[in-house]
Specification:
mainly alpha; iron; membrane; lipid biosynthesis
Length: about 325
């Protein structure tokens, strides 16, 4: 079932959306404060941890040729599961409420999100709503106007701009607080991350087909985790800097097929920021979009419903009105 209702977008025109979902709508009334920016405060703990992780991932890359075929297949499975925890879970379900999920599916997505280890669902969704509401301003957690590195990973290595914290506290997050799955995951997040992001990927290949613990830890464990992190970060960096803007040339996000491929469907970013409530985050359905195919499959089995989709007429009108006249990326 596809739900269609209206909302007013930043240019005053009506779009398709859930009228109750207002926390991801761009707020053009926000103005950055005059005067010098606050000093940058480095978070050395995160800098060290990110450096160690990527060094370990490089070692995992060295070990990759020695991994067995079942281990490589398991690595791919862990990658897809953890990616879905972010894309179908924290992003499309909990941040944008673009579809509804039954309890078993919400549990699976929460577990998958812990395997992804990118902050718990509550914090991820809160920051993402702030990103949409104040995109490319001081209140945007990963403001791409500060450059590729900042938007990619630098934002995690410094203290948040005070406006990010202030605006995040003012968001309406009652839907997240009311979701028992979200709050249970938040309460037990650290334990779930240790088990699902590190122990499970390591011990499954060791126990079931005799893979060495070293390969299990560094390949489906740390290498998979680091690649998944960077694929997600590319949505914030590359997809805000490189690509075309067929839907809205007035905003920074772009259509980037390579990012869509690595982030299992999240690279159609000009479309997504134009229509953030669309469950497919793309005009083109399942094309280069494993996440959309997954949600459609869950709908078929009755585990998901009420997917929100923009009509072709609305899309065509928006392209005509605000697009950059480029070829669409689908």
């Amino acid at each position: 079932m596809t739900e269609t209702v209206t909302r007013t977008h930043r240019d005053g025109k009506q779009q398709i959306a859930d009228s109750s979902t207002v926390e991801d709508v761009f707020d053009d009334t926000y103005k950055e404060k005059d005067g010098p920016k606050p000093p940058t405060a480095l978070v050395w703990r995160n800098i060290v941890l990110m450096s160690v992780l990527h060094a370990a991932a490089l070692y995992g890359l060295v070990l990759l040729p020695s991994a067995s075929v079942p281990t490589l297949a398991w690595t791919a499975v862990c990658y897809i599961i953890s990616a879905l925890g972010v894309t179908a879970g924290a992003h499309r379900l909990w941040s944008h409420r673009s579809y509804k999920a039954a309890f078993p599916l919400r549990v699976f997505l929460a577990l998958a999100n812990s395997m992804a280890f990118q902050n718990d669902i509550y914090e991820w969704a809160r920051d993402h709503r702030v990103h949409h509401k104040y995109s490319e301003t001081d209140a945007d957690p990963h403001n791409a106007t500060r450059g590729f590195f900042f938007a990619h990973v630098g934002w995690l290595m410094v203290r948040k701009h005070p406006d990010v914290i202030e605006k995040g506290k003012k968001l309406e997050l009652s839907d997240l607080k009311a979701d028992k799955v979200v709050m249970f995951q938040r309460k037990h997040y650290k334990v779930s991350v240790v088990i699902l992001c590190f122990l499970l990927p390591t011990f499954v290949p060791w126990y079931f087909w005799g893979e060495s613990l070293t390969v299990g830890y560094f390949v489906p464990g740390l290498l998979r985790y680091a690649v998944m992190l960077n694929a997600t970060w590319l949505v914030n960096s590359a997809a805000h800097l490189w690509g075309n803007r067929p839907y809205d040339k007035t905003i920074n996000p772009r259509e980037n097929r390579l990012v869509a491929l690595s982030a299992i469907g999240e690279g159609f970013h000009n479309y997504h920021h134009t229509f953030p409530f669309d469950y497919a985050t793309s005009e083109f359905g399942c094309k280069l979009n494993i996440t959309t195919a997954f949600i459609d499959t869950m709908c078929f089995f009755g585990l998901a419903k009420d997917t929100k989709k923009v009509s072709k007429e609305i899309i065509a009108a928006r392209i005509q009105r605000t697009g950059d006249s480029s070829n669409k990326s689908g």
